[in-house]
Amino acid sequence: MTIWQPDLTQIPGPRYLAIVDALATDLRGGRLRDGDRLPTHRDLAYRLGVTVGTVTRAYAEAERRGLIKGEVGRGTYVRGIHPGNSYLPEPRSDGLIDLSMNYPVSTDADAVVAASLQAMALRPGIGRVLEYQQNRGRDTHRAAGAAWVKRHGLEVSPEQIVVTAGGQHGMATVLGALAGPGDIVLTEAFTYPGIKAIAELFRFELAGVEMDGDGILPDAFEKACRSGRARALFCMPRLQNPTGAHMPAERRRAIAAIARRYGIPVVEDDIYGFLIKEGPPPLVSEVPELGFYLASLSKAMAPGLRVGYAVVPPAHLQRVSTAVRATTIMASPPMAELAAQWIADGTGDRLAAQYRNEAIARQGIARDMLREFPYSAHPAALHGWLTLPPHWAPAHFTAEVRQRGIVITPAEVFAVNGARPTRAVRICHSAARDRDELRRALGTITDLARGAPEYQTGIV
After folding, report:
1. How far is Cα 186 from Cα 380, in angstroms, rounded to an integer?
2. Which whole number is the average pLDDT over 324-340?
3. What is the CATH number of the domain that holds 60?
């Protein structure tokens, strides 16, 4: 029997789920292997100081996820993580540790998807999801979207929901409906780079608005509005990508008041909203007549779903619906059906909680290892914003880090026209395959940041 005793001190949430999460982490890290026999329920309960019922519930959940298997009369054995039953970032073919993407990490995709698809297959009339649907999505799918955004503090009618093919598609359809060639869309000074591709496609311009640790500065936003060319504001008030800024309620009210005064639509991307259990409601709730709210399930459930929800003011519904029709006719109904099922039966909430718990644990590791440097990140964020010492330029630092086998992203990638230069890099903790890999990568980054760059002078 394997003497396995997980450390639950850094894992928040119910103890039975903490045991499952620790089991999955130890599998990824190689501390448990396929075929290892686990302690009995009573033995593990005694070691951890929990009830036998807690361990029984944990083992049942781990078996449901496909991580372990119980054999009557013989005990409980590790089933292992195999290709096809784990939902983890694939190792890069070049061997690099990629910390450049925010990626939800799960270990039980096989069990979750298999059970959900079986339930879908038995539903009467399920074949109708393969037919053409409304551009905005089926009624049931829009109702699921309304239920999902309500979890994040925004209560709207399903009639205001447009189902999109993920967050990027939601951004494209909404911004494409609001701005065209020669128009200006305002963003934070450093923003998600996907919007740059959208701006190029629709030939509108981006203008960065100065920000601080609480997000966009009201005075800078009002100055940009006075120009008369701005057609919309795109922003991320919660866990801003890449800086991690988190906008407090008072700042949200100030931004909303300025938007209303100048008639500027506000497009709020809340893809990371599921990571925060408490906090102020979405910014758009302060200005609903001008507010567009974007939610995506890519981080909260699975990127491959390609399902998102756009909350659209009634006056703009037809235009956004037309944009969906022009780009993809409709979001994939089978995927939207699966998403609706996960929202209804609690699978989505469980996945989101699992990702949140892992994000908190990894963020704690990053905060500890990077404590000697200016490092900003919310305790539950999937990424952090590291300001480098004066002798390091972000592009040079990321190149040196890559030489050591790690990929991170320099501030320049996120900068919008007019943004002040900053010596910063974004580090995505969830992209590491396990916590040990994250520690190794952060150790390399820390060691390099402490040192000085080795400039070489060419001889001609």
Report:
1. 27
2. 95
3. 1.10.10.10
User: Is 244 in contact with 260 (CB distance < 8 Å)?
Assistant: no
Q: What is the spatial distance between Cα 49 and Cα 341, in angstroms, rounded to a whole number?
A: 36
Q: Are residues 407 and 364 part of one domain?
A: yes
Report for 1-5, 10-14, 100-104, 249-253: range of highest mean pLDDT: 249-253
Claim to verify: residue 414 and residue 330 sit in the same structural domain: no
Give how far the C-alpha of residue 330 lies from the chain's centroid of Cα atoms, to the nearest Å.
23
Question: Could you please report the per-residue DSSP string of 182-202?
Answer: T-EEEEESB--THHHHHHHHH
Pseudo-torsion of CA 307, 308, 309, 315, nearest 10°? -110
- Dihedral pair phi/psi, residue 446, rounded to 5°: -65, -45
**pTM for the model:** 0.79
Domain that holds residue 439: 97-108+348-450
The answer to whether the CB of 434 falls within 8 A of the CB of 29 is: yes
CA distance 223 to 311: 27
Same domain for 356 and 339, yes or no, is no
- H-helix segments, 73-193: 109-121, 139-150, 167-178
Nearest to 317 by CA among 105, 446, 113, 158: 158
Residue 141: closest CA among 339, 355, 378, 361: 339
**Element spanning 18, H or E:** helix 15-28
Asked if residue 456 is part of any domain, the answer here is no
Do 175 and 275 lie in one domain? The reply is yes
How far apart, in whole angstroms, are the C-alpha atoms of residue 337 and residue 120? 8
Return d(Cα 26, Cα 49) in angstroms, integer. 20
Which of 220 and 24 is assigned the larger pLDDT?
Answer: 220
